[in-house]
Amino acid sequence: MAGLHRSSSAPSKNGLPPQELLDDLCSRFVLNVPKEDQQSFERILFLVEYAHWFYEDNTVEKNPSLKSFTLKEFTSLMFNSCEVLKPYVPHIDDIFKDFTSYKVRVPVTGAIILDQTYERCLLVKGWKGTSWSFPRGKKNKDEEDHACAIREVLEETGFDVSELLNKDDFIEVIFGQQRVRLYIIAGVSDDTSFAPLTKKEISEIAWQRLDDLQPEGDDVISRSVAGLKLYMVSPFLMSLKAWILKHPPAVAPKPDVYRRGFSVWKAKNSLSGSSSALVESQYIKPAPDPHVADAGPGKSFRNFKFDTQSIVRAMESAFSSYPLPSA
Asked: Residue 314 burial by CB count (10 A; 0-12/13-18/19+): exposed, middle or buried?
């Protein structure tokens, strides 16, 4: 990784950033921060991660000739370029490994956003991969749970839940050593506009039917009946079902309408082939479909059951066996 280091300030033919740019990133994100944020490698690596996001989302997008890096590559580049970090370059592999282990212990908060009939919830799909989840993210240092949820939902969906959030209305699940708390935000209109405020983090936002989140079979982690990956969704469904039973929606489901799920925002790659993305926001109003009386909207979701503990155990096993990035 040391080969990424550049001492020259001249533009690089192989796309490596000039030293002036690295100095600016180091000064902006690492040096000019409160002293307490420089007291541990965990905090320093979070600062480096912020610098990485800024570099990828802004600098590379404005100058496509610059190379894009993984977080580990960018961390090595910063340590080799910043004078205050250079003494720790020989230990960078261990520092990064400890950081990745630490990250899975940082508490996460977010929100389960329900439509007005409580038949659909809002899910987001990450920039990479095909997994869906509720909008959520890791807490900052000394940040309150509900404040983190408001911030993360706003960043990932562009929707401000601050006026709708009840601090006492949440579902919490422990995954290994990580606590995940999701606040229930119910009664949001399905024609609300959504679009992430951050770049290259969310690829799609959609209203998904709760009925479609049921497991396809015994392998409840892999996919739902609609083919959706349930990895970060299914552990919350049983508690969500119980909450809905105790809190009937203000808007009753219409018996003659099949309330399908639909995408409300999707990012598409630029046709030019660059790393930037052209963002398209499209609202698709679900069309009324013929309805079967004995399979009413939400009925099957309200009746289904599965073993949440088996999901949590499987996820704990997955976390413990997940390989850390190699040197």
From this structure: middle
